[in-house]
Amino acid sequence: SGLLTRLQTSAPTIRTLSSSNSFSPNIPSSLWKLGRLNHVAIAVPDLAKARSLYKDVLGAQVSETVALPEHGVYTVFVELGNTKLELLHPLGEKSPIASFLQRNKTGGMHHICIEVDDIKAAMTELKEKQIRILSEEPKIGAHGKPVIFLHPKDCHGVLVELEQA
């Protein structure tokens, strides 16, 4: 009966905590906010083969291959309904994808891309919070919109791309 009494007396406390609307009242609201997951990028050693897998085997809607010289990559987008996959293949010797594929011969997940409503405000606040951004200014990404990349060591091992929505 002692255990039951302890459970009954702690129940209101649990209810009070679970009904709280915010995680921490001390966190100020941001001038920007995260949006939806735009895509998950996968580095592939054979772009034609990867494109064929998603199009011919899995039946997905797949874009044409697009070269992005300023990023050193070829891209193909696979439509998934609620998001996309971005297949990445090196364009040139200095491509960041070439060095990724040297370490990961069969390819693998390279980064995730999340939309933001104000990329400049995000950059300012993230710098203040000691999150490293891999460029001084946004670059134009595969969707023709400004993008930045956040250092994976500051994002629990994940390379995060933020894209202006």
Automatic annotation (TrEMBL):
<keyword id="KW-0479">Metal-binding</keyword>
<protein>
    <recommendedName>
        <fullName>Methylmalonyl-CoA epimerase, mitochondrial</fullName>
        <ecNumber>5.1.99.1</ecNumber>
    </recommendedName>
</protein>
<keyword id="KW-0413">Isomerase</keyword>
<keyword id="KW-0170">Cobalt</keyword>
<dbReference type="Pfam" id="PF13669">
    <property type="entry name" value="Glyoxalase_4"/>
</dbReference>
<comment type="similarity">
    <text>Belongs to the methylmalonyl-CoA epimerase family.</text>
</comment>
<dbReference type="InterPro" id="IPR037523">
    <property type="entry name" value="VOC_core"/>
</dbReference>
<dbReference type="InterPro" id="IPR029068">
    <property type="entry name" value="Glyas_Bleomycin-R_OHBP_Dase"/>
</dbReference>
<dbReference type="GO" id="GO:0046872">
    <property type="term" value="F:metal ion binding"/>
</dbReference>
<dbReference type="GO" id="GO:0004493">
    <property type="term" value="F:methylmalonyl-CoA epimerase activity"/>
</dbReference>
<dbReference type="InterPro" id="IPR051785">
    <property type="entry name" value="MMCE/EMCE_epimerase"/>
</dbReference>
<dbReference type="InterPro" id="IPR017515">
    <property type="entry name" value="MeMalonyl-CoA_epimerase"/>
</dbReference>
<dbReference type="GO" id="GO:0005739">
    <property type="term" value="C:mitochondrion"/>
</dbReference>
<dbReference type="GO" id="GO:0046491">
    <property type="term" value="P:L-methylmalonyl-CoA metabolic process"/>
</dbReference>
<feature type="domain" description="VOC">
    <location>
        <begin position="36"/>
        <end position="165"/>
    </location>
</feature>
<comment type="function">
    <text>Methylmalonyl-CoA epimerase involved in propionyl-CoA metabolism.</text>
</comment>
